[in-house]
Amino acid sequence: MSNCTDVIPVSSSIHDHSYIYDVFLSFRGADTRNGFTDHLYNSLVDARINTFLDDEEIETGEPLKPELESAIKSSRASIIVLSENYASSTWCLDELVLILEQNTKFNQTVIPIFYHVEPTNVRKQQSSFGEAMAEHKKRMREERDEVKRIVWGQKIASWKKALRIVADLKGLDAKDRKEKEFIEDVVTNIHRRLGVPLNSKRPLLVGREYIKEVRSISSWLTDESCHSADILTIVGMGGIGKTSVAKYVFMLHSSKFQKSSFIEGINTKCSEKYNGLLKLQKQLHGDISKKIYLQVNDVSEYTSKIENALARKMVFIVLDDIHSLDQLDALLGNKCFHPGSKIIITTKDASLTERCSLFNPQVQPKHKKTSLNGLSKSESLVLLCIHAFKSQKPKEGYKVVSENLVKYCEGHPLALEVLGKALQKRDVAYWEECINGLEKEPRSDINKVLKVSFDALSLKNDRELFKHIACFFVGVDRDLTETILNECDINTRSGITNLIERCLLRIGWDNKLMMHQLVQEMGRDLVRQESPNKPWKRSRLWCHEESFKVLKQNKATENIIGLALDMKMLDKKKLRGSLELKTDSLSKMDDLMLLQLNFVQLKGSFEKFPEDLKWLCLHGFPLESIPLELSMEYLVALDMSYSNIVSFGMSYTNTEPLETGQKLIGSCSKDKRLLGSLKILDLSFCQQLHSLGGFIEAPALQRLIVKNCTNLTEVCESVEQCVELVHIDLSYCNKLKKLSISKLKKVKTLLLEGCNSDESQTEMSDMNSSYISLNSSYAIMEATPSDFKFFEISLPNSLIFLTLANNNLSYESFPMDMSSLSMLEELHLDNNPIVSMPKCVRSLPRLKVLSMRYCDKLISIEHPPPTLTNFSIEHSLKHLEVRKIKFDPQMSELNFYGGWKTLEPWSFEIDGMVKIQPLVDVEEKVLNSLGWKNLGSIKERPLGTCYFTGSNTSPKTQMHYEFGIFSTFYEGKEMPEWIEFRTDGPSISFTIPSSVKKLCGLNFCCVEMHPLYNLFMLPIIKVSNTTKDRSWIYDHYVDRFELGGKHINFLSHWMFGPNEMESDDEITIMIKQIPNPVCNTQRTKNCGVGLVYEDGVIEDALHYYKSWNHIIGGDLSGFQLATGEHLLYNMRFMNSTNTSPFGTLIAHGASFKGRQDVMKQRS
């Protein structure tokens, strides 16, 4: 048996059938996993043969896993280890059958190994093979389900046939052979059969991303685009696996092209050798033309010859490790390629190819780009173990140290390989010592590879920016970092872009600066090398232990421009003496711009504190006010989170005139320094803070962050003088009484999450902004409806993002008017007791994102803003019971995020398009008009078990209506008695009989055999009137439900216009089953049709439904396919997955082409 390890020691060649693996190993785990098969696998890997192995066991009777089927079909050869108990595993036997099918269809090489079994016993199913077959037959006879018993019988027959066939193949017998020699013969045999030389050097690839990348590139190479040339750029940091992937693909496909060339390590060869670029040109030209001009020694002249050769022949070229435009221009030129040519470029510079002169001509080659991001933790562990232990798993006792090393490497293949090889045959203590050492100083051989990208940075600005980020700003918001470092004479915005393009930096989903740990260590090592043994002579100190010692010993010098010290990061048991630091220890650092002193006990006067600081972080500052003598004149960012500060005021308290620039801070007296440069103020988690004031003295302030200050009661009205404010965060300030911000014209983001407490009253008033009445249940709400007054609340009209989450905000206390928030694009109302969507939300003209997650009292969602593109109502499964969903038809495309329960709304409606309602709510006269008689017991029947919701109630049977078609479904194995025409199976054909009454519709019913407690997939139904050459294909808006029961009755009424169906018309109705993602065993038992005629009643009970536009007999022109058929499909609003249910709602039907594409996918 086998399991996907995602280890690819590459060797294969791909022809018409696309292969990923060289060999698939099929074996019985209990027999040989820890012995012969393990040794064979390791030998194949050592020989660089791409081998698929599965070391997971499976229970007898379980179906073959999809990844195993895929691996067998993607392998050039299969080795079948036929051991004593091989046939006892149904999984092994299923593998065997599939392998032989591949052998028949695609000539897959099959090598049976008779491991201590006789081929005769395999062929005739004797001995253990006969016993296994007898056991399978016994299980078949014991199976009570007739269908399953038939399936068992068919499988046994196919297994017996497969065993006879494999026994007759030319195999290898392990009998009387030494295992080592026998395995060597197997490896040699594989090499010979696959036509791969034993001495070829192939890269070892591990990981799903790399497999996916190989498949993607292989598809790109074989797309037969013969009318143009294609270029693919593979981007990634050094050592991430770009060369390995490119070489892998080159070895698979180079033989398909007239000429091919792989130029490896271009940048290294150009920098280390005289005339290196010229030599590479000669190599490339020789590969694609078989000519080398020895007399030509000019790069530009050779470029011309390469251009001529590229224009004449369809070539496949890989240029590995391109570093500069000069290299790219010299090797490819700027003229046209021969149609069908493919060029792969690997580089660390993502912007390189776009700047190449090759893309200047009017007829440009097609270009695509892909990037490699490294391995997952489990894949990293596999690669490390292959190099360290010659196995895919850690040796006993090495699991913890292996995982620690994997964590350090962060998925970097080169680092895993280098360290794995270096630690071979070393004990655990040596591993631990190595890991500890790496955290202090990285290995030079890894650093050398990574440093190439840094050396390529041409601007000093970018190099200094890289060091700043590596030492202090990894994990920090990009905008904050830019604000701070721009004041340090760093061109930050363009610099960050350059670092990203060089794969030295990336931006996380939350706008945080992210850097691979090895790259960060490389950057820090660059600073360390400024003075390896004397930290105080370096430009930056980031190591908390070193920073503490430098300050404690008063060795700080003017060289230091940045220093970080967090006392919580130190092991205080290892520190000697007092933990206090003198402020004088900072007095010599005249050029210090970045300073972090978190939870530090400072002693002494702040008068000689560095004056040129741009960023000052003082988490846990112990004093109740800011010292007067602390210089803040040039400060851009001040972070005093978790401090004991009581008040923060920037206002005059002296009645005497002050000199220019004099102000007061906190409850202090006068201060001779300015705060005019301050742009960021963070006082989060200051539990003693009760007031903020004097903002008139901070006119440049852009970000005010005061979250979780639970005693803050007042923010001075002078905050409205901070005209540059763009971001305000007052989350969980639950005693706040007053906030005046309506006059601010630039505030884009306002966070007022969790500002609720029983005594809080928040007031925001003034101006012509949005007036909101709220209870104290939020920063703008009251606590309980009976106890609270309503306060008028005014918000800035400029808001783009607003969160009012977590505030006990009910529908009644919600602001009734938000119409003035004309710029608002994102609103969060999460975790509030809202019953339905507030009316004021519906009127927001630019709202794109609305989040109502964990609003567990939500029962209806009606008329959200038509501009909405993302709507989330993820919820607690125990509470949410949305009973009504109603969208307007003019809704734009909407990403709707919800849980499984959202798939079963009790009521759902898009006006004029789709309507879903409980059957019990449908008027009796409507049911009579449909011909649905005697459905009384069905109406009250639960729709499904709903066992997964944790709810005590479950939706009742529903009626769906769209396109003039009514549908319902319920548990039951018998069709209603008024279904006239019946047949077994999924289709029925009949002739409409003559009648004096007018035919107005037909009822179609089918009984689906359905696994108990599983997803029920509503089938696609095709109704064809062959006489009139008309067809309608109906695919339901909501296509799956959680139902219980073995038989599901599906009933639909088709309401036809006067000309669609008449007497003597030939009608055919067919069912197309949709594959069930959980268990694909749903199928149609029987089906039938009942015709419905006018009953003579004057009142038309279906008048409302007939008034819809897009129904059969109405306007269906937008739903007509090129074949003339009509695809009645409004697209699903919910496309669920097991892990993250979400989907797309499209209010109008899909476009003509879109419907065709959808139908192709679902047919």
Q: What are the segments in which pLDDT stays under 50 over at least 5 consecutive residues?
A: 1-17, 57-61, 651-673, 758-792, 900-904, 943-953, 1132-1163
Structural class: alpha/beta
Terminal residue distance: 33 Å
Task: Characterize the main sheet.
Answer: 15 strands, mixed
If strands are numbered along the chain, what order do they take across the biggest sheet? 15-16-18-20-21-25-27-29-30-33-34-35-37-39-55
How would you sum up the global shape?
A: globular
Rounded mean pLDDT is 80
> How many H/I helical runs?
29
Give a count of the beta strands, DSSP E runs of length 2 or more: 55
Q: Tell me the fraction of residues in β-strands, as a range.
A: 15-25%
How much helix, percentage-wise, in residues? 25-40%
Radius of gyration: 36 Å
InterPro entries: Apaf_helical, Disease_R_plants, LRR_dom_sf, NB-ARC, P-loop_NTPase, TIR_dom, Toll_tir_struct_dom_sf, WH_DNA-bd_sf
GO molecular function: ADP binding
Keywords: Leucine-rich repeat, NAD, Plant defense, Repeat
Organism: Tagetes erecta
Topology overview:
Elements: E1 7-9, E2 21-26, H1 29-32, H2 36-46, E3 51-52, H3 66-73, E4 75-82, H4 90-106, E5 109-114, H5 119-124, H6 127-142, H7 146-168, E6 172-173, H8 179-194, E7 204-206, H9 208-221, E8 230-235, H10 242-253, E9 259-263, H11 266-272, H12 276-289, H13 299-312, E10 315-322, H14 325-332, E11 342-347, E12 366-371, H15 377-389, H16 399-409, H17 413-422, H18 428-440, H19 444-455, H20 460-473, H21 478-486, H22 492-501, E13 506-507, E14 513-514, H23 517-528, E15 540-541, H24 544-552, E16 562-566, E17 581-582, E18 594-598, E19 602-603, E20 615-617, E21 637-639, E22 647-649, E23 663-664, E24 670-671, E25 680-682, E26 691-693, E27 703-705, E28 714-715, E29 727-729, E30 749-751, E31 770-774, E32 791-795, E33 801-803, E34 826-828, H25 839-842, E35 849-851, E36 860-862, E37 870-872, E38 884-887, E39 894-897, E40 907-910, E41 914-918, H26 924-930, H27 936-939, E42 958-962, E43 965-971, E44 981-984, E45 987-991, E46 999-1009, E47 1014-1017, E48 1020-1025, E49 1030-1034, E50 1040-1043, E51 1047-1055, E52 1066-1072, E53 1083-1093, ...
Parallel strand pairs: 2-3, 2-4, 4-5, 5-6, 8-11, 8-12, 9-10, 10-11, 15-16, 16-18, 17-19, 18-20, 20-21, 21-25, 22-26, 25-27, 26-28, 27-29, 29-30, 30-33, 33-34, 34-35, 35-37, 36-38, 37-39, 38-40, 49-54
Antiparallel strand pairs: 1-7, 13-14, 23-24, 31-32, 39-55, 40-41, 41-42, 42-43, 43-51, 44-53, 45-52, 46-51, 46-53, 47-50, 48-49, 48-52
Keywords: Leucine-rich repeat, NAD, Plant defense, Repeat
InterPro entries: Apaf_helical, Disease_R_plants, LRR_dom_sf, NB-ARC, P-loop_NTPase, TIR_dom, Toll_tir_struct_dom_sf, WH_DNA-bd_sf
Protein name: TIR domain-containing protein
